[in-house]
Amino acid sequence: MKKPTKDLLFDVSEQDQSNMNAIEHANPRLLRVVLSEQTTRLDFGYVTTTYYHKGGWITIAPNTYLEVHGDPKRYLLKEASGIAIAPNKIKFKSTKDYQFFSLYFEALPKENLVFDMIEKYKGNANDFNYFGIELRLKNGVEVVG
User: Fold this and answer.
1) Do the Cβ atoms of 143 and 43 come closer than 8 Å?
2) Residue ranges of the domains in the chain?
3) Which of 17, 69, 84, 137 is deepest in the core (most CB within 10 A)?
4) What is the DSSP code string of 7-49?
5) Which of 30, 1, 33 is nearest to 16 (CA)?
6) 10 Å Cβ neighbour count for 92?
7) What pLDDT does 17 receive?
8) Could you tell me which of 52, 54, 34, 35 has the C-alpha nearest to residue 43?
9) What is the reported pTM?
């Protein structure tokens, strides 16, 4: 009988995110990745800016996906928690607001890999595109559940 594998948590908040995000400032900030048998979860933190009146709004495109370097397969977004899926939006009430949210994708393989999160292919600074997210199994922490 095959032993069930545990979820692995990767703290990516310490990685150099300047190369990950198409936006010069990493907002939202990728905090961690959790690999499980069923899903890959990406956890983010977002802080509003003074650029928008009352902090603006956030949303995620329904066709957002993950792509492992060297693998043409797209791992599709399955669910979102703490963020609206477009065309819906979460509207902030002030420039001091913040939001934590999680995105759930089809499960990535549990192996050393580098992947990208793409909200919009060839997007602009308003799209949440992250490149070169590196996961090394030796850096993962088993989640006790």
Assistant:
1) no
2) 8-47+59-86+101-142
3) 17
4) PEEEE-TTS-TTTTBSSSS-SSEEEEEEE-SSEEEEEEEEE--
5) 30
6) 21
7) 55
8) 34
9) 0.88
Length of the chain: 145
Tokens 């990950």, located at residue = 20
pLDDT of residue 34: 97
Eight-state DSSP code of residue 84:
P
- Tokens linked to 102: 């999680």
Is 59 within 8 Å of 90 (Cβ atoms)? yes
Residue type, 50: T
Query: For each successive 10 residues of the chain (145 residues), what is the average pLDDT?
Result: 74 64 63 96 90 82 97 97 96 89 97 96 85 94 83
- Measured CA distances, 131 to 64, 75, 118 (Å): 13, 15, 8
68 token code pair: 């492992």
Residue with tokens 């995620």: 60
Encode burial over 118-133: b for 16+ CB neighbours within 10 A, e otherwise. bbeeeeeeebbbbeeb
Strand-pairing partners, residue 90, are 58
